[in-house]
């Protein structure tokens, strides 16, 4: 047991005795200072509900898209439409952010997506085919709402706080993903995919309420009398002011650090989406082998494939939650962001190298479990922490560009690879895995460069 130092104060001017029970409990998993626990828990609950909603939608989109003719290929090609839409949506988001406060921005975007979900549910009741449109919509929803919530967390915390407390926020994401995928995987076979759209609406309402509560707490901190020496509320300063200035794309292309992050997001998603194509193709092939090609278009296929992905996502999310809870904060504390950025590409390099020689469903499933678990935990927390030393404008606008368009442009490149590989080159899963190996080599070099930039920008060089 470490000796106590009752007279030693932390960076907020508080001694260990100033910490409440919640601060002490959270301190078992990461370094939590006095008074930080409540906001950390609220942010954790916020992203819990958001990821639960997304996991529901992600699980039900798979049977809806994979059971259309040529589903695995259509799934890859739909990414091109998403990237094209983001060319329009990112400037619109930046323009909106330039005219409203952060809480009005988040509320407005959330309400828009709730209205879309209700519309999809009503269309499903009239037997309108929504598989492709819903898949594209989920891709947009996923990136925009999650990016803006992490931007909000970046805005609430300073660099020093974020490196300590993002592990708690990220744990909420892991738990939410588990809850959403597990409940959907267990119930989709009985109820079908469509009722979960309304369930996601309810969760998004909770997210919006929590965002407003956190925002009010931070505003009270700003207007409260000066606290103990060393207190830093600068992260929330001016949060009610619109973010005037350049668009997200302009910010990215004018700043080398932000541009490197954009390329990182592109490569990461290029690799991951190609891996998802390999997995989806093998899942459908396994169903056809046991039920026949004609059965793929039926409702039973939707239920079986939905159950497979529900169970798969549940396993991914359980593993990522354990990594988030016990490893992420310790890796960031003892090894730093630079090392944390390298873990996923190293694991992915090993997985795809081995996958090229063992192209069977059970092995591909295991390799994707490892890749996705790290992506949703350590990699997710680390890449969101990259924005801590940037301006508020970059946190919302540039991050939205990087986490939406550049991510989906990686999907476009993956779709191009799938088209060329299946149409002209006769690629099997082995060849797609080998392409990923080459891409990961570039990803590793890029991660090293970004780690150096982060260290310099955060003042720890």
Structure description:
It is a single chain. Helix content is 79%, strand content 0%. It is mostly helical and 461 residues long. It has one domain (31-223, 239-457): MFS general substrate transporter like domains (Growth Hormone, Chain: A), CATH 1.20.1250.20. The longest helix is centred in the middle third of the chain and has 36 residues, at 256-291.
Helix percent reads over 70%
Under CATH, the topology is which?
Growth Hormone, Chain: A
Shape: globular
CATH architecture: Up-down Bundle
Compute the gyration radius: what is it? 22 Å
Overall SS class: mainly alpha
Number of β-strand runs: 0
State mean pLDDT (0 to 100 scale): 82
**Name of the top-level CATH class:** Mainly Alpha
The percentage of residues in β strands lies in under 5%
Q: How is the main sheet built?
A: none
What would CATH call the homologous superfamily? MFS general substrate transporter like domains
pLDDT under 50 segments (min length 5)? 1-17, 225-238
Topology overview:
Blueprint: H1 21-26, H2 37-66, H3 71-97, H4 102-125, H5 131-156, H6 159-191, H7 195-223, H8 248-254, H9 256-291, H10 299-334, H11 336-355, H12 361-385, H13 392-425, H14 429-457
Task: Pick out its properties.
461 residues; mainly alpha; Growth Hormone, Chain: A; disordered N terminus
Write a short abstract of this structure.
Helices cover 79% and strands 0% of the residues. By secondary structure, the chain is mainly alpha-helical.
């Amino acid at each position: 047991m470490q000796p106590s130092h009752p007279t030693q104060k932390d960076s907020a001017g508080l001694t260990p005795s100033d910490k409440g029970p919640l601060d002490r409990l959270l301190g078992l998993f990461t370094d939590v200072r006095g008074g930080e626990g409540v906001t950390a828990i609220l942010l954790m609950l916020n992203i819990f509900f958001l990821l639960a909603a997304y996991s529901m939608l992600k699980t039900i989109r798979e049977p809806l898209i994979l059971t259309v003719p040529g589903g695995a290929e259509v799934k890859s090609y739909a990414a091109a439409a998403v990237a094209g839409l983001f060319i329009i949506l990112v400037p619109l988001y930046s323009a909106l952010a330039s005219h409203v406060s952060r809480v009005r921005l988040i509320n407005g975007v959330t309400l828009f997506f709730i209205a879309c979900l209700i519309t999809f549910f009503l269309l499903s009741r009239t037997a309108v085919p929504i598989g492709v449109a819903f898949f594209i919509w989920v891709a947009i929803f996923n990136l925009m709402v999650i990016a803006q919530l992490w931007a909000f967390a970046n805005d609430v915390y300073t660099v020093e706080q974020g490196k300590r407390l993002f592990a708690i926020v990220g744990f909420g994401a892991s738990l939410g993903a588990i809850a959403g995928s597990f409940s959907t995987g267990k119930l989709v076979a009985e109820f079908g995919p469509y009722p979960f759209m309304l369930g996601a609406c309810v969760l998004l309402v909770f997210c919006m309420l929590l965002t407003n509560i956190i925002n009010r707490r931070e505003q009270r901190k700003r207007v409260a009398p000066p606290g103990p020496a060393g207190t830093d509320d600068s992260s929330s300063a001016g949060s009610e002011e619109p973010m005037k200035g350049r668009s997200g794309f302009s910010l990215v292309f004018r700043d080398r650090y932000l541009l490197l992050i954009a390329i990182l997001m592109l490569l990461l998603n290029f690799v991951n989406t190609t891996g998802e194509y390999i997995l989806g193709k093998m899942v459908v092939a396994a169903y056809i082998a046991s039920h026949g090609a004609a059965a793929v278009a039926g409702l039973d296929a939707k239920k079986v494939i939905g159950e497979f992905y529900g169970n798969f996502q549940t396993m991914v999310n359980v593993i990522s939650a354990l990594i988030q809870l016990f490893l992420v904060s310790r890796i960031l504390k003892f090894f730093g962001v630079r090392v944390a950025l390298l873990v996923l590409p190293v694991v992915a390099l090993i997985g795809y190298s081995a996958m090229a020689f063992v192209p069977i469903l059970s092995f591909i499933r295991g390799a994707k479990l490892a890749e996705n678990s790290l992506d949703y935990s350590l990699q997710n927390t680390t890449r969101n922490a990259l924005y801590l030393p940037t301006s508020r404008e970059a946190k919302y606008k540039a991050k939205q560009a990087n986490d939406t368009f550049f991510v989906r442009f990686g999907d476009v490149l993956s779709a191009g690879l799938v088209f060329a590989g299946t149409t002209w080159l006769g690629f099997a899963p082995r060849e797609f895995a080998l392409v990923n190996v080459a891409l990961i080599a570039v990803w590793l070099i890029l991660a090293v460069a970004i780690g150096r930039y982060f260290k310099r920008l955060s003042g720890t060089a």
